[in-house]
Amino acid sequence: MGAESPGARDRVRQWRTTFRVWRWQRPFWAGLLTLLGGLPIAYFPYANLTMGQLTIRMSTTAGSGSLIIGVLLVVLGLTMWFQSATRVFAGVAAILLGLVSLVISNFGGFLLGFLLALFGGALGVSWAPGEVLAAKSTKDAQAVGPEPDEGVDDAREAADAGTATDQESRNGRHRAG
């Protein structure tokens, strides 16, 4: 007998499938990059780097601004995950906050947070939801052609478009004379 039972393998497979479906329904990578972009922007202004006896503080006068930008980027990343309808707003806001972090927060978390926020915001703006499989099969059926009774009235209207058979032409409004 193996160390792993078939029941555990099925649960892991089911969890991975569920996570994959959840991930495909939202801008997952955009939210992850935006969330990760906020961490160095918020962390570095408050970090102490110790090399032997030497302690280097990275704090700036705009430490609270860096913290606010970092927290907002984390919130925007979570918003992209859990409210995917606001992905365009969250993406644009992430790009703008990433740009502002260049000036406020140690060159945007030493360019690491800036680049992550920039790419995450761009992915959030450009992400579009996929098509549902049922809708895709309906579109394929429509692409094949209409049903025999469908489109007959449309064809008649198109054929009569150039003739004067409508009500206004019959009651004399378009007569010259």
Automatic annotation (TrEMBL):
Q: Name one Pfam family in it.
A: DUF6114
Chain spans, region Disordered: 137-177
Tell me where the transmembrane regions lie: 28-49, 61-82, 88-119
On the tree of life, the source organism's domain of life is Bacteria
Q: Which UniProt keywords apply?
A: Membrane, Transmembrane, Transmembrane helix
Mind telling me what this protein is named? Integral membrane protein
Q: Which organism is it from?
A: Streptomyces buecherae
